[in-house]
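Example with several molecule types.
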Amino acid sequence: MGTPNNELTSSGWAVPPLASVTGEPLLAIRDLKVHFKLAGRSKGIVKAVDGVTLDIAAGETLGLVGESGCGKSSLGRAILRLTEPTSGQVIYRGRDLARLTQKEMRQHRRQLQIIFQDPYASLNPRMTVGQIVGEPLETFKLAQGREAETRVQELLETVGLSKRFSKRFPHEFSGGQRQRIGIARALAVDPDFIVADEPISALDVSIQAQIMNLLERLQREKNLTYLFISHDLRAVRHVSDRVAVMYLGKLVEIAEAKTVYADPLMPYTRALISAVPVPDPKVEALRQRIVLEGDVPSPIDPPSGCRFHTRCPYAIQTCTEVSPPLVEIKPAHFAACIRISPDQPDIEQVAPGAAPGLDAAVAAAGQPVVA
Amino acid sequence: MGNPNVNLLEVKHLRTYFDTEDGEVKAVDGISFALKRGETLGIVGESGSGKSVTNLSIIRLIPEPPGRIVSGEVLLDGVDILKLPAAQVRRIRGRRIAMIFQDPMTSLNPFMKISRQLMEITQLHLGHNRGQAYDHAIRMLEKVGIPDARARANGYPHELSGGMRQRVMIAMALSCEPELLIADEPTTALDVTIQAQILELIKTLKQATGTSVILITHDLGVVAGMTDHLIVMYAGKVFEQAPTTHMFALPANPYTRGLLRSVPDPMAQQGELYQIPGSPPDVAHLPPGCPFAPRCYRAEEICQREFPPMVQLTAEHSSLCHFAQEVYEESKLAVAATEPLGEGVS
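Resulting C-alpha cells for the full complex:
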C-alpha cells in the first residue's frame, strides 16, 4: 500500500465536538505540541509533546504515565505555559491559554497551579514557610497583613502541618513536610486545577501514602481537578479516575484507571502494566511478565509510523508506515494501535499480519479523536 | 546460626557508627543475619534505616573517618572479613563479593572505555592477559544482553542509556563469578519496563551461576518477586526477618504491617490508603525506647521506655517488638477475615 497521510492531526482546525466526557470539560487540550530546538545543533528538534488531544473533566484525577523522556512533564508544564507550547490549544473556561499574553496568563495561574517533584529544590531556602505560602496571596492581592497571616496558618493546618511552623525555614523540614508546604502554596490561591508532577517520587514509602491521602482529601474538600503525572504506576492506579499513557510524545491509551490495569489494549500499555511489581509474593510467583526488548528510542529522531514499533512484539510492516490515531476501541477506552479495532480488541486474537484498525486509522486522518 | 558450610555469609552483631556534627550516629546498630548459598535476601527500609551502610560494612567500604565499624563479625565462609588486612579484603571485593549501585553513571569511569573497565577486573583478579580479558569482557557484555557488544565495548559510559549502563555494571560485577552479589537499589533510577529487564536478568544470571544475592530496595513489589528471605530495617536495627512469603502473609511487627498496607496494590480497588503517621526518625536523636514507638498504632507506655526484645515467632521468623506475638496473632486473624486494618488512618 502507499503511504497514507501519516500526520493524523494538523494545526489550525476548529475544536471538534466533545465526545468522551459528559458535560463541559474543565480543560480541553487540542493537538498540543511542544518542540525543543537542540542547542548547538542546527537541525535537531526534540518533539517532547507531539500532538496531544485530551479533555480533563472538572473534579477528576487524570493520571499521566510513561517512561522518562515520553513528554509527560512537558505536557503538564505546557498546559500551565511554564514551557511555551509550540502549537495547539489549551482551552480553559472558553479561553485558549496558549494564546494569552504572559500578563494574562499570570492572572490565570491563580486557577492553575503546580506541585513539583523535588520538595528540596522547589522551596526558596531563604524564605520562611509563612513567606513561601503567603507569597501567592500577595501576588494576587488576595489578602494582606493579619488576614494573610491567618490564611497561611489555615493553609498549613489544611495540609497537616502545625501553624507554628510559619516562622521556620524549609531546611528544618523533612521531605514529606516540604511536599506539604509545596501543596499549601499551591492551594493558597484557591485553584481549580493542579498539575502534580511526580509529587511523591522523592519521598519514602511511608510518606508517599500520607501525601496521596492528603491530595485525595483536598480534592474532595475543594473540588479540585488533578493532572497526576508519575512514573509510579501503582500510585497512579490508586489516585486516578482515568489514566492516560504516553509514549514518545504521543498518547497511546486512555481509559478508566481500573480498565487500563485490568484490560490494557495497546501492546506498550500491556508491557508497562505487566512490568509493575506487585507487592505480593504469591502473585509475583505466578505472573507472566512481558519483557520489552531495548530502550525507549530518542525523541530527537523518533521511529516512523507507530513510535512503539521498534520494541513491539506485535509490529508488522504497516506499523512502520502508519501513525496510529487514538480510536475508541471499547466504550470510553481509547487506544492507538492499527492491529486492533472495536471488533477485534484483543491483539492476541488478531490473525498474524492483520491490521483490522488500519481503515479506521486512514479514515481518521486529519480528524483527531478527543479522549 | 548454623552450619558454616551452608551459610555463605553470616553477619553478627554488626555496629557501624558515624561521627557527625550532630554527635554519634548509630547508622547500623547491632544487626545479625545469615545468607545461604544460592539464596536471595531482600533488605527493605526507608532512607536512613541503615540498609546501605550494612552492605558497605560487609565489603569494608565505609569511609573512615567519619564512619567506623565499632563491633561485630562478617563471616564469609567462616572467615571474618572485618579482621582481614586491607590487601586481602581487596582480593575479596570484586572477586568473591561484587556490588552494583543505584546510579551506574557514578560507578563507571566516564573517561575509560567500557571494555577497559571490564578488562581491569579480570586482569586483576583472574590474571588474564589483555587478549583473554578482552574476550571475556565481550562475552560478559553479550551475556547481559548488550546488543552489538564489540561496538559498545569501544564506547564510553555516557553513550549508553541508563538501562544499558546498569547492564554494564552487572557484567562487571559478575565477571569473576562472585559468590555474593550485593545489589543496592539496582533499578530505582530506571524506568519500569527497563526495571523489569534488569530484574529478569539478575534472576536468570543467578539461576545460571548459583550466586547468592543481597537485594537492597525500598520497593516492596521488587522484593516480593525476587527474594527468598526478607529483612526489614528501621533506624539502624533489624525490625523483622522472615521468609519473604511468610513476612508478606503474617507480618509480626507493626512497622512491617504498616509498610505493607501503605503500598497501593495495582490489582485491587482500594479506598483510602493505610498511612503510617510521622516521618522516619533522625538517627542522631533516637528516643530511649522503641525507635518506631512515636509512629506506632500499637505502642503502649512500655514502648516509650524500654527497648523492645527480638521475639522469635518461628525458627525463621523474628520481630523486634514488645508485642510481636500479639501483632503476629493479629496478622493471622486478618488473614482469616481478610478485613482491612482500621487503626492509624487519619
